[in-house]
Amino acid sequence: MRIKVFKTIFFLLLASAVPAAVPDRTDSTSAGTLAIPPRPSGTMTGAEFIRSVVELSVAEREQAILHEISNGNIPEFLRRLVAIETTQKDAEGKRRKVAFFVMPDYLAVGSNDDLCRMPMTPHTAKRIAELFGASLTTTKMVDIIYRNAELKLRPLPLTVTDSVRIHPATFLAHSGLITSQRVSAGKPLGTLIAGTKKDVVITHRLTERPGSVFIYGWHRLNGKPIQPLYGGHSAAYVDYSHGIRLVDTRVKVDDVWMDLRALLADPVLFALLADEPIP
Q: Disulfide: which of 223, 236, 237, 248 matches 101 by Cβ 3.0-4.6 Å?
C-alpha cells in the first residue's frame, strides 16, 4: 500500500525538524553480544539527531552518524542479538548445522522510545561493523533471517520524488511507520522483524564494482524480495529504504566456533551463508 499521508508527515518533521579500536572477537563465550559502548546519558534521541543533520552535506551527515553510533547512541534493545539456527549445505553438498547472531531490527540512532532506523553509506556501515565486531549481511543471510523472523512486516514503499527519498526527514518518517507496524502487531522491542528495508549487503560483486552500494531484500509477505541484488548506485547514494543489519562475526558450524569472515572466504563453507565466496 502506498503511503498517501507521507507529505504531511514529511513537512511536520521538517518543522520540528573518536571510535575505539577494533575489538578482539576470538572469545566465543560472549557470542551474541557486540562491543557497543553504553549509551551516554543526555545524548540525542532519533528525532533530535535527524534535526541536527538536516542541513548537513552527505559527507558531514555520515561523519555524524559514525560519531553517534560508535559512541553508543543506539537503542538498548538492539544490543541483544537474536540467535538463528539453521541447516545448510556447503559447496560439496554436505549438510551442516549453522548458528549465527543478528540484530533484531535495523541499526538505529536514539533510544528505545525515540529512534530512527538509520540509512547510511556502506563505508560508514562497514566502519561501524568493524568497531563492534560485526559484519553486514549477505543476500543468503537476508533470506535466512526473513524465514526465521518472528514478525514479518509488509514493506512500505513511499511514492515520493528523488529529492525526498534521500532527505533525512524521510528516514525518520519511514522509521516511524515501521515502529507503528510493530506496535500494531502487538510485538515488543527486540522481536526479530524483517521485510521493512532493503539490506546493504556484502557480495563478491564488490570486487568488480568497489565504488557501488549493493542492496537486496525488502521481502513481500509471500517471501519474495522486492529488490533483487542491485549495485547500480554509487556508494555515496543513500535513501530511506536502505537498512543496516549487523551480524556477530562469531558463528558456529557443527558446534565449532569460527569467524564469519573466514567462513565466507572458505571455498567449501562459504555456501552455508553466501551464494559465492567473499574474500
A: 248
